[in-house]
Amino acid sequence: MQTQRNVLALGLLLCVSYIGFTSFKPLVAEVVFADDYKILMFNCDQVMREHYIAKRALEVDPSTRNLKNLQASEVGLLDCHEYDKLRKTMIEWGLTPAKLSSIGIEALEEQNYELRDFVEIHEIRYQ
Asked: Within a domain: residue 103?
């Protein structure tokens, strides 16, 4: 009888621990990873813009200088790879894409990013 109670108590403790862990896991991930996520997200955005500009410059003027600028900007895309890896890790820890977007908006606000600039940068223009 005592053994059954001990097993039941242990099972209950494990269930409560698991539920507690899964409930707090996203919060822990946010606290631990949010600052790095903000930095990488912002850096990736900047690098993608620089890469786009360098690519367009090479299309307009296919010079050696513009080719070197494009190649240099491609190295910066490593920040985007790190950003993507961290984003996936945070999702695995239970953060939702909506929460990650919220953290990203915080990063833009912290960098005093103008919304109009953000829209213009990410606007797709058909020519």
From this structure: yes
